[in-house]
Amino acid sequence: KKLKKERNQKWFDEIMLLHDTLEVFREGKRAPIPKKMTLRIAEHCFRLGLNEAGQDAAQGPDDDDGEDDEEADVTENKTLQGQPANAIEELLSDLMKELNQIHQEFTPSKDKSLVDLVDQRICERRSTEKRPVIGNTLNVLTEFDPTPRDLQFFKFTNTPRRTLLLRLVTLQVLNRQLRATLPLIDFSVRGNVSRLAGLVRSIRTI
Q1: Which one, of 45, 46, 38, lies nearest residue 81 by Cα?
Q2: Average pLDDT for 172-197
Q3: How far is CA 172 from CA 82, 85, 97, 111, 168, in A?
Q4: What is the pTM of this model?
């Protein structure tokens, strides 16, 4: 019974985290990303070598094989392994602030432009590769290679590469969280009945 209760609590916590996160991605909502989700995104950035400014391309490629890693946690990284939660949070505090500063700059329409840039240009260019490349499995360090023309078309010419990388990772983590939770959401009811279903529908473009 205790194990079942713990599983139910984890399920409930993930549902609530997704709900609270989707709230701040809606049109007109520029509140900070929930702390737990921001930390999760920061941990993923850390594994990619994006934990410090200027490390968007200097680090070597991640060993990610393209598989979804929504179940992955911070212990995968040897540098963070064994460290207490408060130490990890302190280590990633600057990155967490940066992620939320970038969040303030991105509207839903700007997020959609970034998704379109990845899907329509980068993934399409790489469609002949052996491993199918889609937005959620794109390795941001080695496969995010927009041309100057791509950036101009999607109005990102003046946006720093690091900003685009961090936002892309944010959207990847959000989408992985969504996919893990979708089976638990009842889309047969109207949005004014199921708040979570309505929120998922409201951000379907990203």
Answers
A1: 46
A2: 71
A3: 26, 23, 18, 12, 6
A4: 0.76
